[in-house]
Design goal:
The complex is a heterodimer of chains A (about 270) and B (about 250).
Chain A (H helix, E strand, L loop, with lengths): L23 H23 L4 E2 L4 E2 L26 E2 L2 E2 L3 H13 L2 H10 L30 H21 L2 E3 L6 E3 L4 H18 L2 H9 L8 H14 L2 H23 L10
Antiparallel strand pairs in A: 1-2, 3-4, 5-6
Helix pairs in contact in A: 1-3, 1-8, 2-4, 4-5, 5-8, 6-7
Chain B lengths: L2 E10 L4 E10 L5 H11 L19 E4 L2 E4 L13 E5 L6 E3 L2 E2 L2 H9 L18 H8 L9 H5 L1 H4 L11 H11 L9 H7 L11 H5 L6 H18 L1 H10 L6
Parallel strand pairs in B: 1-5
Antiparallel strand pairs in B: 1-2, 3-4, 3-5, 6-7
Helix pairs in contact in B: 6-9, 7-9
Classes of the chains: A mainly alpha (about 270), B alpha+beta (about 250).
Chain lengths: ~270, ~250
């Protein structure tokens, strides 16, 4: 017998005496994250309906599109990666880039709290006994790899730049007369991509690694006034990191879903002008 | 306004014990500790409970109320519904001594394992000067009242007795963070020892310590995660390691 049932501890047979609905939050997180994983996996392998040239929209799951498999016009910086086949199937261009945002979120300090509690039940909630007999935390492989969070953060910043460029490019639209793409248009898709890029920047800027890098690692704030000021701003955002984590997750899924609907012809992207 | 309160209070010692039902009067504005004192005065004369200031500043009356680690003196009776039974138990992460009193000496042993502040050799007492911005960050950690609720709720030791020898716990991670962030502290291996000797890597950041802290110290966000990042700087980041070798210093000061 270990943990709360150890020999020297108060003899209480229940794993927890909490009377609130402590299981609600982990259950909700399992539901939402599982739904996202299923949807993102489907979209990553679908390899279709991710780009609409006439609406200047590209899905965040496929940007930057780096593979020769990408549909014409979807690649922003060329296609340095050739077409790859595994077991006869073409590897979707999405898979070459999704590793980085996936790694960023998987190693994110907030998501770690979320999935350790809800999926791994370590612990399922505060003061609720966990089911595992042993525990080594993040001291051994594979969880020691959580320490690579900063590298995924840097990669995430690069992707944010691409997604921001995508949002700017979405200010283009077809000329009413010639049909040629031109600048100076605004559509619902533009707003969706803009919102997505904004949410992702907020998520990155509020990241604990960002906070550490920008000034948290200093011992003397007074000797680095600019970095200290930047650290105070990032700290304000950092308090909302959990919110930005969720908003950006929904944002990226919605942006992809919207582009899918538009590029598949299911809906028409409304242009304000 | 007085109301009748249904309570279950754990009575016993290290070898045996259980929850005992009691009905007690509670007056408007009272806290759980007040009611426990009334039970002690009227029905259970030998009920053991540790308390001192009744103002949320001494950290003595830590216990678990309806399964949640809390200070009895800061838990309002009015926060419970009229029909609700309030269950009070000792802290479940530590050995019980009697009734609601536990042996928290584990925490004092861990405190002794952390090297104290090391003053610069070239500064005589009274010569040290610090800017307010440098003091502020660690001042948050000085609010700790050592109630050990964070230690109690931390599943690393609560659910795994065997980890107690290698894990200092959140209360002492804020102590290590406070010292590592101190501009004048000259001990330079706090990051390494935090990971290798005090078990920082065992923490999986589930933030229960922050949730239960009665002083609202952001234990996880302001101490544990910054320390984890500092540990990455010196142990797991090859680029930072290379940079430190080239610049011949431990890290940016």
């Amino acid at each position: 017998m270990s943990g709360v049932f150890s020999a020297t501890r108060a003899k209480i047979s229940e794993k927890t005496l909490r009377t609130d609905r402590w299981w609600l939050q982990p259950a909700f997180i399992v539901l939402v994250l599982s739904s996202f994983i299923v949807y993102a996996t489907f979209r990553a392998f679908e390899n279709d309906n991710y780009f609409s040239e006439s609406n200047a929209l590209i899905s965040p799951f496929y940007s930057p599109c780096l593979s020769k498999e990408c549909v014409p016009g979807a690649s922003l910086v060329g296609t340095p990666i050739g077409i790859l086949h595994i077991f006869g199937a073409t590897v979707s261009p999405s898979l070459f880039i999704l590793l980085f945002p996936l790694g960023f979120r998987l190693t994110c300090y907030y998501y770690r709290k979320g999935y350790y509690r809800s999926f791994w039940m370590s612990p399922p909630a505060c003061a609720v006994a966990e089911p595992h007999k042993t525990y080594t935390g993040e001291t051994r492989a594979p969880l020691i790899l959580q320490n690579a969070h900063r590298y995924f953060f840097y990669a995430g910043l690069v992707l944010n730049v691409f997604l921001s460029i995508d949002a700017v490019l979405a200010f283009r639209g077809p000329n009413d007369v010639t049909g040629k793409m031109e600048w100076g248009h605004l559509s619902v898709g533009t707003l969706v991509l803009l919102a997505n890029a904004t949410f992702l920047w907020l998520y990155s800027a509020s990241c604990h690694t960002c906070r550490h890098t920008i000034g948290g690692r200093l011992r003397n704030f007074s000797k680095h006034p600019v970095r200290y000021k930047a650290w105070t701003y990032v700290s304000i955002l950092n308090h909302k990191h959990q919110n930005f984590a969720w908003i950006s997750l929904f944002g990226v899924a919605f942006a992809d879903f919207y582009v899918r609907l538009v590029s598949s012809g299911s809906i028409t992207n409304f242009f304000f002008f | 306004m007085t109301r009748k309160l249904n309570m279950r209070i754990w009575r016993g010692n290290a070898t045996d014990g259980g929850l005992e039902n009691v009905v007690v009067e509670a007056n408007e504005g009272e806290v759980v500790l007040d009611v426990i004192h009334r039970v002690q005065a009227t029905q259970m004369g030998d009920l053991a409970v540790r308390w001192n200031c009744k103002a949320g500043k001494c950290g003595s009356c830590s216990m678990e109320i309806n399964g949640r680690p809390r200070l009895a003196c800061m838990t309002q009776i009015s926060s419970f519904k009229d029909e609700e039974t309030i269950t009070v138990t000792p802290l479940r992460a530590f050995p019980v001594i009697k009734d609601l009193v536990t042996d928290v000496s584990f925490n004092y042993r861990k405190a002794m394992e952390i090297p104290a502040y090391a003053h610069p050799a070239n500064l005589a007492p009274g010569e040290a000067r610090m800017e307010q911005v440098d003091v502020e960050r660690s001042q948050e950690f000085r609010k700790c009242i050592e109630c050990f609720l964070c230690q109690d709720t931390c599943h690393v030791i609560r659910d795994h007795e065997e980890n107690k020898k290698s894990f200092a716990g959140p209360r002492f991670f804020i102590r290590i963070a406070e010292l590592d962030m101190h501009p004048l502290d000259t001990l330079r291996n706090r990051k390494q020892t935090a990971q290798e000797e005090h078990g920082l890597g065992m923490c999986n950041i589930t933030k229960c310590c922050t949730e239960v802290c009665p002083e609202h110290i952001h234990i996880t966000d302001n101490a544990i995660i910054p320390m984890k990042e500092r540990v990455v700087d010196v142990k797991y980041d090859p680029l930072r390691w290379l940079g430190s070798k080239i610049r011949k210093r431990e890290g940016i000061v």
